[in-house]
Predict the structure.
Amino acid sequence: MYASYNKFKKQFESFIQYYNNDRIKEKLGGLTPIEYRRRATEKMSGFFVQPNGFTLKDAELFNCLM
């Protein structure tokens, strides 16, 4: 099936990368498993990291100081 263990290992690692990071899952709202876990973790921790690097908690604190 595979010419060597290294070729098998490389193919297996490629599949795991695809399965966790690239595969879109309908049951997860069209997200990849990694993206779903990241969003769930952020939601459970009480903040969401914005593209500018601030969290909602940072933005709330900033608004309170203004």
About this structure: The chain has one domain: 5-65. Residues 5-65 form one domain.
